[in-house]
Amino acid sequence: MSNEYEPLEIIGKGSFGTVRKVRSKIDNSIAVRKEIEYKSMNSHERNQIISELRILKELNNKNIVRYYMHDHIISQKCIHIYMEYCSGGDLAKYISDYKTNKEDVPEELIWQVLVQMLLALYRCHYGCDAEKVNLFHQEDNLSNKLRNVSPKINSDSVIIHRDIKPDNIFVENGVFKLGDFGLAKMLTTQNDFAKTYVGTPYYMSPEVLMDEPYSPVCDIWSLGCVLYELCNLQPPFQAKTHLQLQSKIKRGIIPNLSESYSFQLRSIIKECITVDPNLRPSCYDLINSLSIKFLRKEMELAEYNRTLSQLKYELINKNEELKKKEQFLQIHESKLKEKELNLTQMENNLIEEFNLKKKSLDLEAKEVRLGYQKEFWTVVEKEVEKKVQERLKSRPRGPRELDDIHTATTSGTNDSNNNSNSNSNNNTNNTNNILRNKNLNLAQETIPNNLPFSNHKFRVTDEYERQRNIEIRKYRIN
After folding, report:
1. 302-314: burial string, b at 16+ Cβ within 10 Å, e else
2. Pairing assessment for the beta strands 17-24 and 5-14 based on DSSP bridges
3. 402 pLDDT above the threshold of 60
4. Is residue 32 part of a domain?
5. Known binding positions for ATP
6. CA 373, CA 376: separation in Å to the nearest integer?
7. What is the mean pLDDT of residues 367-390?
8. Number of independent structural domains in the chain
9. Deepest in the core among 142, 244, 277, 313, taking most CB within 10 A?
10. Which of 257, 288, 319 is the C-terminal boundary of a domain?
11. How big is the chain by its Cα radius of gyration, in Å?
12. In this predicted model, which residue has the larger pLDDT, 202 or 396?
């Protein structure tokens, strides 16, 4: 656990150990670490420290220095207590500054110390926070006064400070906080008076000083002494020797307070510094006095106003942030619309460019196809021409006699059929079919049976066209 904090400078030392400033390695927050050594303590005192530290965990009040955690270092026989760091210093520094400047402490500041310390002591003595002030319900106030009912003090959980002094009242952002809770009670035994109370006990109550049974009102005596010092800039009891100081504290006679302060404040301070603890007012009595109630109500209203101002400030900042976000969103939306228009225009341009390229590619493909077709037909014509020429060369030149064709046809027919004389008309038809199949260009009239063939000639051009068509059909089929 101690590895989570980085040790910084030492800000105080005492009989219990050292007070050191530390920084958290997690969030860089500043805290205070009290290093208490227990080498000279017995087991009972050590267990008492642990039990008191557990009680300190429950002390959650804005006027109490917050307790974070504790760490037991067994190897060093030491206990580290991590608590809230108050950057404003302590009340002793305030008194020293006013004394140096020879100025009186403002009464408003003294009232603030009184009320806030009473709220802290109320939480310690009664184990709960004081109720909010209600000045307008007179019936409830009268019934409470008649009954004179005060919260019960639980002896098992009560925390009596016993060491209230200006050095143990700290300041953080204008709020006074009571610190070092229970340390005096934990570390003090019958034989540890000198170790616990180093120096002169200016603020000790008579019963604690005499080692008599005491109650929580011993803290009221100490608070009265602190308030007295704020008014006169010096403790109420001063002496050259320890015995003389004890004698003055037992008598409880104090010099008069400065007349510059109100009668109510001076009366409360005198009531707090009462020798008999049975006559001394309790924390409940003081916090329910009329002057304290009015002051508490004023403080509560001021706190409400500060809270409202803070909320207003936060709302204004939030509103400004929302306006900035709205402007940013509007700008972003306009940019998005502009981008959308650009994308639409780009898309249209791409589509148009694509269509143009497609048309050009189609034209180019068409030209290539036509070129291929032209080249193909050129090759075909050349091949056809070549084939036709080859076939024509293989045939006899000049026109053939039609008689030879007729003779060849009739002789083939006579060989296949012995009854040719009776079927002369069929022979003539066969001749016509042969000539038609060979694609010869003959006259359209019907060839009579007795037509002489000697006067009709076969034309070479017809044969050329026929062969050419045959070759073209072959290429198309392939």
Report:
1. eeeeeeeeeeeee
2. antiparallel
3. no
4. no
5. 34
6. 5
7. 86
8. 2
9. 277
10. 288
11. 62
12. 202
Separation CA 454–CA 405 (nearest Å): 11
Q: Model confidence at 189, in pLDDT bands (50, 70, 90)? A: very low
The closest of 386, 397, 401, 368 to 460, measured between CA atoms, is 397
- Chain-centroid distance, C-alpha 23: 24
For residue 319, is it within any domain? Answer: no
What is the C-alpha to C-alpha distance for residues 406 and 410, in angstroms, rounded to an integer?
6
Token readout for 427 is 């022979």
| Domain range for 401 | 393-477
pTM: 0.63
Q: Is 163 a catalytic residue?
A: yes
Q: What number is the average pLDDT over the span 377-383?
A: 86
Please indicate, yes or no, if residue 57 is contained in any of the structural domains.
no
Q: How far apart are CA 130 and CA 121, in angstroms?
A: 10
3-state SS assignment for residue 257: coil
CATH of the domain at 267: 1.10.510.10
The annotated binding site is made up of: 34
Q: Answer whether 220's CB lies under 8 Å from 281's CB.
A: yes
In the 8-state DSSP scheme, what is residue 105?
A: P
Give buried/exposed letters for 172-192 (b at 16+ CB in 10 A, else e).
Answer: beeebbbbbbbbbebbbeeee
Directed axis angle between helix 263-272 and helix 218-232, to 10°?
140
Average pLDDT for the chain: 78
Helices and strands (DSSP H and E) totals, the chain: 15, 7
Q: Which of 242, 273, 288 is where one domain is finished?
A: 288
d(CA 184, CA 163): 6
pLDDT of 126: 86
In angstroms, the CA 126 to CA 186 distance is 19
Cβ atoms of 259 and 232 closer than 8 Å:
no
Check pLDDT > 90 for residue 105: yes
Check residue 154 and give its pLDDT.
62
Q: Say if 251 falls within a structural domain.
A: yes
- Shared-domain flag, residues 398 and 271: no
- Name the active-site residue from 90, 129, 140, 163: 163
